[in-house]
Amino acid sequence: MNIIALIIFAILIIIALIHLSWAFGSFWPARDEYSLVQMVIGEPDIRHMPSRKLIFFIAIAFFLAALFALWGANIIMPPLPLWIRELVIFLLAFIFATRGLAPFLIAKQLGERVEPFKSLDKSLFAPISILISIGFIILLVNL
User: Fold this and answer.
1) C-beta separation of 5 from 65 below 8 A
2) Mean pLDDT for the chain?
3) In terms of pTM, does the model score above 0.85?
């Protein structure tokens, strides 16, 4: 379980750091803000990134999810009741599964997305989310 937890941790920390860089004004991997919006949000009417506070909050959420992966494998042991660990890992598995399956199951209801987000979502964002969800499910089953 340690390997699975460490892989989930590494992926989520990388995602958190990317979001943190956006919160501080980076446009990587795009060349400008509008290109970044088209790459990571994909809404045709949105031209600017969300507020820096919101992006920072999202980075913190990914960081906390990464810590729960470590707790799921007993690599860290925070002074919290174990039922919190089980509940949060279940919720994280559900959230990442929902995010991963969304472009394939409810894409029409979400509205039309623009490129390159549309392609990146199905080839990168969704599969990573599904793999993270599977990892959390494995951790949950082995608690």
Assistant:
1) no
2) 95
3) yes
